[in-house]
């Protein structure tokens, strides 16, 4: 079964969450009473899923959630009373995978966590693809800048500069972007 971390500043509701999850066979790794402690608690306990109980998600809670899940991404389920569109949007933007209004019923926990886990995994695929595309664009930009410096410094054509970089990369068994980085460090920018 999954290990969950309960985050709730309301002691009574927090205990209800702990009890509900334990009754369904989930292991509760930790119960955090303040969102301020969330980043350290997530790093320490490494739960599979973060469960948040809140009357309404406030800015501080969402900021601490972002910090906590930036380096250790996790599915997050929020149980709340707030059904305002702005609150839902802010929570989802902060990384909440499932936003449940008035829905703390023990029998529903397993499907709620399953939806949150699947939605989180699909979101991570999109984030990874966007990061990969961003890295690729940055590498292309770096190669273009290095080629430009080489053209100016060595009075080469664009084709000759590219082929020189490519030959060096092949001869040294390095990636073209590594050669571009070396060129950018070796050849100062022209004023």
UniProtKB/TrEMBL annotation:
Membrane spanning residue stretches: none
SMART domains noted in UniProt: ANTAR (SM01012), REC (SM00448)
InterPro entries with a match to the protein in the record: ANTAR (IPR005561), CheY-like_superfamily (IPR011006), Sig_transdc_resp-reg_antiterm (IPR008327), Sig_transdc_resp-reg_receiver (IPR001789), WH-like_DNA-bd_sf (IPR036388)
Limits of the ANTAR domain: 123-184
Gene Ontology molecular-function annotations: RNA binding
GO BP, sorted A to Z: phosphorelay signal transduction system
Annotated Response regulatory domain residues: 3-117
Protein name as it appears in the record: Response regulator
């Amino acid at each position: 079964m999954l290990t969950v971390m309960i985050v709730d500043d309301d002691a009574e509701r927090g205990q209800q969450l702990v009890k509900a999850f334990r009754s369904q066979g989930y292991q509760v790794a930790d119960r955090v009473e303040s969102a301020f402690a969330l980043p350290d608690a997530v790093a320490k306990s490494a739960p599979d899923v973060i469960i948040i109980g809140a009357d309404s998600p406030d800015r501080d809670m969402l900021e601490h959630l972002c910090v906590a899940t930036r380096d250790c991404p996790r599915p997050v389920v929020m149980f709340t009373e707030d059904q305002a569109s702005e609150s839902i949007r802010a929570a989802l933007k902060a990384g909440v995978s499932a936003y449940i209004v008035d829905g703390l019923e023990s029998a529903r926990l397993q499907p709620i966590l399953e939806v949150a886990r699947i939605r989180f995994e699909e979101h991570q695929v999109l984030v990874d693809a966007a990061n990969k595309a961003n890295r690729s664009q940055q590498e292309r930009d770096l190669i273009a800048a290095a080629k430009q410096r080489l053209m100016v410094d060595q009075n080469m054509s664009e084709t000759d500069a590219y082929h020189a970089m490519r030959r060096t990369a092949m001869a040294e068994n390095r990636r073209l972007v590594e050669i571009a980085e070396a060129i950018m460090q070796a050849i100062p920018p022209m004023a």
